[in-house]
Amino acid sequence: MQPLRGPLLLAVVATLAACATAADGADAQPVAVADGIYMLRGAAGEVGPENGGRVGNAGFIVGPSGVLVIDSGVSRAQGSALLAAIARTTDKPVRLLVITHARQEFLFGAAAFRERGVPIQMHTKTARLMAARCDGCLRTLQRTLGEEAMRGTAVVKPDVTFDETQLLAGIGRPVRLLYLGHGSGPGDVAVLDENTRTLFAGGMLDNGRIPDVQDSQLNGWAQALATLRGLRLARIVPGHGAAAGPELIATVERYLTELQARAQALLDADVALSQVADGVQMPAFADWDQYDTIHRRNASIVFLRLEQERLTKEGTKS
Prior knowledge:
Elements: H1 6-24, E1 31-34, E2 37-40, E3 58-63, E4 66-70, H2 76-89, E5 94-98, H3 104-107, H4 110-115, E6 120-123, H5 124-145, E7 160-162, E8 166-168, E9 175-179, E10 189-193, E11 198-202, H6 218-229, E12 235-238, H7 248-268, H8 276-279, H9 291-317
Parallel strand pairs: 4-5, 5-6, 6-7, 11-12
Antiparallel strand pairs: 1-2, 2-3, 3-4, 8-9, 9-10, 10-11
Helix pairs in contact: 6-7, 7-9
């Protein structure tokens, strides 16, 4: 084989450089979804080298006196790319980073914000969950994505924690942090821009991707979604997937309700746990991202919870 020379070599080098840029998240481009509201959409699929782990959405709100950032990517490099994207969009200073929930693709970019001196805020329970398990998550990411992609990434403690819904100050426009109880996760929050009625939903809502029930309390999640339905939302930036209208709430409610009903039917039929992942078929959601992975795990998790509830009731009666 002849060695590559001239224009062909330059083209190959350019292609490899582009792939490297995409993998580390530096290609992240903000998209305006409302006046002063921007999102950076993550890729489909599991965290892996082919997408650089950038599977979660991030976003920011530009106010008269500064910028509020919502979620930060999976690595310091992605956090830096997010800050660069903000700087290309506005000359307003970044005032605060809010982490909506303790999942790896949303929180590890906070290392770049800490280096810039940007305060980091999250719910007390999210901070607790992050401290309990994210050292292990980071080691897994380093193995999955490689040391170079994760260089400088660390588990960053928040500067500010909170326990209840609150109005944020600092960017010159009304933005509310919503904590609706333990639903999709123990400290999961949403961010509501009151001017445009735009909701950054964090872990509460995904669009075209199977919601993960691992950290959830399903009854609390249902109550949280019912509360969101009453907020007169104009649009939603989900944790994963494209921005959507408020009808996304009903879609996610339908998935969670049907998941529970189908798992309960298998439990009532005394089906073995080993058959549950294949037994909870939900064709209406089969084209959603992670149907073959997260959905199968969800089915087993919900089945086991329902089984435990039944055993507890039987034990109480005896």
